[in-house]
Amino acid sequence: xxxxxxxxxxxxxxxxxxxxxxxxxxxxxxxxxxxxxxxxxxxxxxxxxxxxxxxxxxxxxxxxxxxxxxxxxxxxxxxxxxxxxxxxxxxxxxxxxxxxxxxxxxxxxxxxxxxxxxxxxxxxxxxxxxxxxxxxxxxxxxxxxxxxxxxxxxxxxxxxxxxxxxxxxxxxxxxxxxxxxxxxxxxxxxxxxxxxxxxxxxxxxxxxxxxxxxxxxxxxxxxxxxxxxxxxxxxxxxxxxxxxxxxxxxxxxxxxxxxxxxxxxxxxxxxxxxxxxxxxxxxxxxxxxxxxxxxxxxxxxxxxxxxxxxxxxxxxxxxxxxxxxxxxxxxxxxxxxxxxxxxxxxxxxxxxxxxxxxxxxxxxxxxxxxxxxxxxxxxxxxxxxxxxxxxxxxxxxxxxxxxxxxxxxxxxxxxxxxxxxxxxxxxxxxxxxxxxxxxxxxxxxxxxxxxxxxxxxxxxxxxxxxxxxxxxxxxxxxxxxxxxxxxxxxxxxxxxxxxxxxxxxxxxxxxxxxxxxxxxxxxxxxxxxxxxxxx
Length: 535
Fold this sequence. Notes:
six-stranded mixed beta sheet; single chain; globular; about 25% helix; alpha+beta
């Protein structure tokens, strides 16, 4: 592969030409050059009897001029298409605002195993009317039969028998709820370290994270100490684009920590906040802007929809959980950017249906898109937003699209549905800025030849670090040439994959430009794509 690289600066403009305008080919049957003063056989038969036998053939310069004007004409068509596209997007956005102008947000629940993520998510659905009393009573009976009475709320999110029997979330649970101000999708991520890849797929779709912490004696310490999932989940969330974190300190009503008259312990709450804040600051979160702490009881629903009683928690002066969610400022997304939707899953249903989150641009029924990297043109025949069929959708929505023109076996997770005029780049290698977290004991250095598993949007691929370009000094930001780095370092590295993958630079499209590297079940590095090879 060529060693020429391009860096996509923010706001840089790239000219995208219509494929038909960007390449010219001469068909011998169409463009036949013959000596001046002579005519080809086809020309003779096409001539009128009244015309002269000899016909002047255009010169090479004239042909070139004609080609240039054709090119300009095609370019004009591209510009007209762009103007038409903007007009169409504005029309779609107006229709969507009239239909339902509320912003949509994906909320991922993360944290150590048994912190109460599924229970808290289930309580949210119950409080917003997503689950009726009869269903809750059924779940209570089932949990009692298994001698797990406190698990019944988790059954709302943990739907399969394996999850209910063991009390551990395996797959990323999905559910929807609404407030008067916003629409939400809950992504209930598994907390067990064996299912971190599933957690990554959930967090990669999230806009905001809820880090659930168990306040019970011993449980917070287990989750937070080295090897606990509280640390890894918080680091991964930041890498995967979760810019705001609500830290829900759960189980505040647990007998191991409550004070007189079942009052919630401020001492325990302050202790947890004091230990978490420096660590989360180290992950890249600004404690004043990006972090909100709240004490809750997920099982009982205290301090969630309504503010907790002053008798129970006299020292908390903040807002309840739902109000905090609604107050999180809107995430800026560009509806006029080229359409990008990484494919999370696919199935067959009267055509090929693909699932994913629209990361940029808008999509409407009838749109013609390109499935990358295999370059198959497709047409959108149906759009579902959450469970509802709609005519169009804005960026940030979880979508299912029924496509015509492609078979199910031609699509894989990690493929990207892309705007036809501005295709997503497809590469075999890229350059990235990497923060090395914790390398394995028996592989203590990162150098050329190191292999790991790359998690980038919905891609999970084996990769190789082919070269350490430079190490970066964390304080001065100076780059220094080196051949290897150790845990805790920041470096520029080149990463190669065997199969072509869809990647954009972090500055062009953050959702398609951030990644994690994992090795033997541990997250060893996080990074962002800085350069991709020139075409």
